[in-house]
Write a structure and sequence with these properties.
Helix content is 29%, strand content 27%. It is of the alpha/beta class. The chain folds into 2 domains: 84 residues, Urease, subunit C, domain 1, CATH 2.30.40; 84 residues, no CATH class.
Length: 196
């Protein structure tokens, strides 16, 4: 189904997994009155690249909400995560699925770094995440919202429908407030995350 993702500063018309048109909401809605419209607050940008794929998906345990009494609700890294995975290696795939969802919640559509665990690689590939080379310099500590944020190249007509929407007035505010302001993430035309 064709969908028009619209913000005040720019909109994208998506058909299948591709960008069909770019422009203002007014011009795209007038030219395509039959399409489904999703209105979002803020700005629409290419999705983000998180350079810490292995660290977030293989070296961090993302607890299931049902495990809150045992592990809490925030991601667990370091030696504690290694202990959890050593005690039960089958937890790696489920943790990676929750980690991918956390990446989506931060507008991430691509990760960098080599994923070595088959269970994690399978999860990442099925999710639609794109794999990229790591930047020459990593931007500080491992984070779901690293600074500086790394945007993918601009959207193009005919290119993949892979983008995020952030509830900020402009890119300067996105840099200041970070990727936690994400309200929607789209990968290959699929809405994979929407803030409630």
């Amino acid at each position: 189904m064709r969908t028009l993702h619209a913000t005040d500063e720019g909109s994208v018309l998506v058909e299948g997994g591709r960008v069909e048109a770019l422009g203002s909401y007014e011009e795209l809605a007038a030219a395509h009155p039959e399409v489904r419209v999703r209105r979002w607050p803020g700005i629409l940008t290419p999705g983000l690249l998180n350079p810490y794929g292995p660290e977030i998906l293989e070296s961090t345990y993302h607890p299931d909400p049902r495990e809150a009494d045992t592990y809490g609700t925030v991601p667990i890294g370091g030696e504690r995560a290694r202990e959890i995975f050593r005690a039960d290696p089958s937890l790696l795939g489920a943790s990676a699925r929750r980690g991918v969802q956390r990446l989506f919640e931060h507008g991430t559509v691509a990760v960098a770094g080599e994923l070595r665990a088959k269970a994690v690689l399978d999860v990442a590939q099925r999710s639609g995440l794109v794999f990229a080379a790591r930047p020459d310099r990593l931007p500080g500590p491992v984070s779901l919202s690293p600074k500086p944020l790394v945007l993918l190249p601009a959207l193009t007509v005919g290119g993949p429908a892979r983008f995020a929407v952030f509830d900020v007035p402009d890119r300067a505010a996105l840099v200041t407030r970070g990727a936690a302001t994400c309200v929607a993430t789209v990968i290959d035309g699929r809405l994979v995350y929407r803030a409630r």
